[in-house]
Design goal:
- By secondary structure, the protein is of the alpha/beta class.
- The protein has twelve helices and 16 strands.
- Strands 2-3-15-14-11-12-13 form a seven-stranded mixed sheet. The protein has a five-stranded parallel sheet with strand order 8-7-6-9-10.
- The radius of gyration is 20 Å and the shape is globular.
């Protein structure tokens, strides 16, 4: 079911001019009250947090993407469990073998990817606890405001077993053991499935879905995603564009290669990549950032320090000489969205691609 109520802003009428800046764009950016890193939907949720950062629609020449995101349909409707012979089933996973409920009712999730999975199979309302992310909100904005009400159990790097135990879960699901939350410690609390370090995001999601007794719903979600990706690519002639993806951290600049989630979503639409970015990720020489060049450039910032560093690079002479920058085809995307994994995130990225791949930023 929908994650939360949100203000729905109609999509731009012409994909060639779907991102606008200037006085009108800045005015809309303030009215929509969106967060600084293109972070998610504007919503009819009360704004009672002084930590919410306001933004305009332009950062260092990049058009901010996602300020019109509608999260009301971010999560799927509740899905039925897979057929089972009893009330439990055995799941083999990266940390061992667990006997888990066939239809879990109280789920604790460790990591954004696992939370994304509960959203994709319609079980987010059964999540009684989740690890949180750093920043102005405890969870990524693309999942909507409803997940903000889920109790936190510590950061993903160090979940707190004591907080998890207080929530009385009947299933714990996540990626790798972290900090105090060893597999042994978690298994003493509830049946635990830790899928391991899975480089393929679709297989990771399938493992999460299976742990929740929703293998069938997971397969259906992936099939829908692939259909949407193909339709998106066809609708915008994605195969004719070479899209660059650049990420700034506090101290470095890198392009994202074919092994990354965002690159895989682009590939599923049929979009191409610049020659320098067709293999694995690599560093960018900030004095000669030719490796960042493309028909358009998607930029993301890793936190506030990454934004500070990124803006300094993006205002430098070498950067401003890039063709995509001179053509006003530079777009700032949400790092919490483009740098995670999961079908909910994948669908949101498809929306960003559909609205920007043939777009330009108006002065």
């Amino acid at each position: 079911m929908p994650v939360s109520p949100a203000v729905h802003i109609p999509a731009a009428r012409d994909p060639r001019i779907s991102v606008r800046t200037g006085r009108l764009g800045r005015f809309l950016g303030v009215v929509l009250a969106c967060t600084a890193l293109a972070v998610s939907a504007c919503a009819s949720h009360p704004d009672d947090s002084a930590s919410i950062i306001r933004t305009t629609t332009n950062v260092a020449g990049a058009g901010v993407v996602g300020i019109e995101r509608d999260t009301t349909q971010a999560c799927a409707l509740p899905t039925a469990p897979d057929p089972a012979e009893g009330s439990t089933r055995t799941i083999r996973h990266g940390s061992g073998e667990s006997r888990v409920p066939a239809d879990p009712q109280r789920i604790v999730v460790l990591g954004t990817s696992a939370l994304d999975a509960t959203c994709a199979v319609g079980l987010w309302e059964r999540v009684v606890g989740a690890t949180t992310v750093a920043g102005p909100a405890p969870q990524p904005g693309y999942l909507g405001y409803g997940v903000l009400e889920v109790p936190g159990v510590g950061f993903a790097a160090d979940p707190d077993p004591a907080l998890i135990a207080q929530l009385d879960p009947d299933l714990i699901v996540g990626e790798m053991p972290a900090g105090r939350a060893s597999y042994a410690a978690l298994s003493e609390i509830a049946p635990t499935v830790l899928v391991g370090d899975e480089p393929n995001w679709e297989r990771q999601f399938t493992a999460f879905a299976g742990a929740m007794g929703r293998h069938g719903a997971g397969e259906a979600a992936l099939a829908t995603y692939h259909s949407d990706a193909a339709l998106t690519g066809a609708s915008i002639n994605a195969r004719f564009a070479q899209a660059s993806i650049v990420r700034f951290t506090a101290e470095s600049s890198e392009y994202l290669g074919s092994e990354t989630f965002a690159a895989q979503i682009l590939a599923d639409t049929g979009a191409g990549r610049p020659t320098a970015q067709r293999e694995t990720s690599g560093p960018i020489d900030e004095s000669d950032p030719v490796a960042a060049e493309g028909d358009l450039i998607y930029v993301m910032f890793a936190g506030t320090d990454g934004q500070e560093h990124g803006e300094s690079v993006m205002r430098s002479d070498p950067w401003e000489k890039l063709g995509a920058v001179g053509d006003n085809r530079l777009f700032l995307v949400d790092d919490a969205l483009w740098h995670t994994t999961g079908p909910t995130a994948a669908r949101a990225i498809l929306t960003d691609i559909r609205e920007t791949l043939n777009a330009y930023v108006m002065d």
